[in-house]
Amino acid sequence: MVLAYIIFCVLFLCCAFLLYIMSKEAQADRVLVHHWAFSELPVQKDPITIFFISDIHKRTVTQTIIKKAKAQADFVIVGGDLAEKGVSLGQIKANLVKLKEIGPVYFVWGNNDYELDHESLKELMKKLDIVILENTAVCLIKQKVTLLGVEDLSMEKDDLEQAVNAAGNSPFKILVSHNPKIVDSLTPEQNIQLILSGHTHGGQIRVFGFGPYEKGGIKRINNTRLFVSNGYGTTALPLRLGAKAETHIIKITSSSTS
């Protein structure tokens, strides 16, 4: 009887400690810094610096994150799932106002964003001068760099061809898609060098290294680099294991010598 009680207590403490660790991972305020060079990018004096955040969901963006990214990034990209059902417009506005402290904000829709009042969210972003990339593109730096954004693929609202057409003949294209599976729709002729995405949460809860999705990171697929973030928030349970919450400072330079 005593042995059974001791075993129960040990198991209870182990479970409690594991939940504590998982909660801490879910609430992490990590800003990872990435340095990537591309031969297709025209030579310029300073790197292009992006603050990329995806899958905020129910989280409140902390001042810790803002302080780390402020004065570093040229602009902010929100890679979808800014929020989800049950998150108030007030909380969404507060998060966007904080992100605007870093720089101009660009946004693409994620699947959970469609759970909200679509028009109210669009009106809020319009008031805050947030640029929504809905299957379109914007020029960032004197026709040298173009940012493309598509609506969410899993909702069948994406139109990559329309976004590519809007980008014209820009020599360097960055595509933002909440769902990384957009890479399967790419053709060499579209000449997209970089994709930024999220959606998968890096599996969110990984057991012995295994999870429902791959852990976030960058990989090369043909001539395109695909970057998938683990994301900042969580879905279903406010817990993570083996895939800490993260945001990103991305510095892009030219590898050309002339």
The number of domains is: 1
Instruction: Please list the strands of the largest sheet in the order they lie side by side.
Output: 1-12-2-3-4-5
E-strand count: 12
* SSE succession: HEEHEHEHEEEHEEEEE
The CATH class label is: Alpha Beta
Q: Any low-confidence stretches, pLDDT <50, length ≥5?
A: none
Multimeric status of the protein: single chain
Kindly report how far apart the N and C termini lie.
78 Å
Q: Number of helix segments?
A: 5
Largest sheet: 6 strands, mixed
What CATH calls the topology is: Purple Acid Phosphatase, chain A, domain 2
Can you describe what's shown?
This protein has one domain (2-254): Purple Acid Phosphatase, chain A, domain 2, CATH 3.60.21.10. Helix content is 24%, strand content 24%. The chain is built from 5 helices and 12 strands. The strands form 2 sheets. It has a 6-stranded mixed sheet with strand order 1-12-2-3-4-5. The longest helix is centred in the first third of the chain and has 25 residues, at 2-26. The mean pLDDT is 91.
Topology overview:
Blueprint: H1 2-26, E1 31-38, E2 48-53, H2 63-69, E3 75-78, H3 89-100, E4 105-107, H4 118-127, E5 131-132, E6 136-141, E7 145-149, H5 160-167, E8 172-176, E9 194-197, E10 217-221, E11 224-228, E12 247-254
Parallel strand pairs: 1-12, 2-3, 3-4, 4-5, 7-8, 8-9, 9-11
Antiparallel strand pairs: 2-12, 6-7, 10-11
